[in-house]
Amino acid sequence: MKKSVWLGSIIVLTLLFIIVLTPLSTSKERTSNKFAEHLFNYSLPPETSLVAKHQSNGKNFVDGGGSGGYWNVAAVMELSSKLTRNEILAYYQNVGSFPYPKGNQRGVPLELYFKEESRRVERSDGFYYRSQTGEIRTVHSYPLDTNSVTLIKGETKYILQLVSGFDYFLNFN
């Protein structure tokens, strides 16, 4: 009788342990994927096609991270457009901030890098983009020349990116 109670207790505790650990081990990836979908579902300008989309995440992944226990996520879309640089900037000029990974509060700026002016930062967990000088470039960091009419058409390659981090301790979202 005592053995069956002891065995039953061990089985119940093991099941509870598995039930608690499963959300802890999958929630970082789930939160990262949900965050990336905000960018991946954003509509593209006309005459623009998706070349590739990526999502990378990891502990202290972006810019070395620091000393905190934050889980960083970078959502990247590589695009090719027949629009001019000014037309692309004008299209994204009024885009507001995107939601942070955990919740609905907005504050993550849309980053935009023109391919020829950017560099890909490789990490063991994936990659993200910065300007050639290492700066973060948002849409508003580029001068928009609304007075000039650019008649030069061709292929413009650019990158849209969202980068943020979240505290992943007991992340049950």
Structural topology:
Elements: H1 2-40, E1 48-59, E2 70-81, H2 85-92, E3 98-99, E4 106-108, E5 111-114, E6 118-123, E7 126-131, E8 156-167
Antiparallel strand pairs: 1-2, 2-8, 3-4, 5-8, 6-7
The percentage helix is: 25-40%
Low-confidence parts, pLDDT < 50 over ≥5 residues? none
Number of domains: 1
Structural class designation: alpha+beta
Q: Could you give the order of strands across the largest sheet?
A: 1-2-8-5
What is the total tally of β strands? Answer: 8
CA-atom Rg in angstroms: 22 Å
The rounded distance between the terminal residues' Cα atoms is 41 Å
Question: Globular, elongated, flat, extended or rod-shaped: what is the shape?
Answer: elongated
The share of residues in extended strands comes to 25-35%
Number of helices: 2
Mean pLDDT: 83
Q: For the report, how would you describe the main beta sheet?
A: 4 strands, antiparallel
For this structure, the quaternary state is: single chain
Secondary-structure element series: HEEHEEEEEE
Notes on the protein architecture:
The chain has 173 residues and is of the alpha+beta class. The protein has one domain. Helices cover 27% and strands 33% of the residues. A four-stranded antiparallel sheet has the order 1-2-8-5, covered by helices on one side. It has a two-stranded antiparallel sheet with strand order 3-4. A hairpin with a 6-residue loop joins strand 3 (98-99) and strand 4 (106-108). The radius of gyration is 22 Å and the shape is elongated. The mean pLDDT is 83.
